[in-house]
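Thread: "does anyone have the structure for this chain?"

Original post by V.I.:
We have the sequence but no experimental structure in hand. Need at least a predicted one for the grant figures.
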Amino acid sequence: MFDGDDYAYARLVANRYPALPVYLQVGNPAPLTTHAGPGSHEAPIDDLMRHFRWLVDKVAGDGWFTATVLLQLHVLAWGNRRRLTERS
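Reply from O.Q.:
Generated one for you, tokens below.
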């Protein structure tokens, strides 16, 4: 979920298929230019958390209690590394 358009599309699909579970996650654009500088693999955690809170507030504010909002834990732990063998 990157923005309000993505959110609106998710609502449309969820309404079309109400029997299916809905899982929402905030988007993580790549490549990132972060506080660590261009080319860094560190995710901008403050930005990700701000976007996560936006999504939680939006879902709760709309009363969409059947949707599950999740963090991308791998991004919080490892940033935007493309593969496990990649080093800092």
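V.I.: this helps a lot. The first strand starts at residue 22 and ends at 25.
O.Q.: and The helical segments are 4-16, 45-61, 73-78.
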